[in-house]
Amino acid sequence: MRAYLDFEKPIAELEAKASELRSMLEKGSAASLGDEARRLEIKAYQSLKELYAGLSPWQKTQVARHPERPHFTNYIEHLIEDFVPLAGDRAFGEDEAIIGGFGRFRGQSICVIGQEKGSDTESRLRHNFGMAKPEGYRKAIRLMELADRFDIPVLALVDTAGAYPGIGAEERGQAEAIARSTEACLQLGVPNISVIIGEGGSGGAIAIATASHVMMLEHAIYSVISPEGAASILWRDGTRAQEAAVSMKITAQDLIKFGVIDQIVVEPAGGAHRDPAKAVSHAGKAIAAALTQFTGKSKEEIRELRAAKFLAIGRKV
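Predicted structure:
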């Protein structure tokens, strides 16, 4: 059964009525019910398109966090062939919040790194809800350096509320690990592409999203802190998260204006959670096109282009 967000209630009612009519039709009711069901389905689809064309930043935040939205493992399954995950940071241990490894993307060798939130209670606990610890970022650094050594492009799929803020993580150097991972992204001599597929939260996202080409899915968010966290700090009132979401400019549509991201990937009508396969396919086409931009460029050229891109952020209006 589909999970509806609060603002989708009118759509839920229309689709429920259409589904009920379809069930009655299957049980032998009047054929005219089929026409009514189709009419309701068309009306629901049109209403859905209109609703999603004008989502507020807070509504986009809810969509970005939707539990049925495709996660890192879904992208790997549909886009990457022969994926071989590698574990451990060679210093402390393994962190399953970040998954990384090597595989083939449309016949080309590629290193893929990203956060996995999990899809049920067991997997969410195992992956720590996609909130990485220092060993996760040190694993990412290890993989990026390995990819650079063998001239393999890096793809980062970002989906995290932020880095894990626990005491143990801070004791093991969380801030330092994030800074070094960001530095590793900037020093790569191979192209790195990052895609914000859901939430791009704080330094936990930036640590692997500092790329030659940064993309966001249409209804993803990317911010220095969550709207709830910002509201708690600024106004001592977490209930003002909607106001914070508007002020922070966290949507793809806002961020592309400032040059923080380079491209918006269109989502299916009603968000990526409505048609995960199509959402993943759209992202795959965008990734393939982005990689071709760097064909024939030297390591130094790639570094210079990446540096210039980030130095220009905020100047583009």
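Summary: The chain has 14 helices and eight strands.
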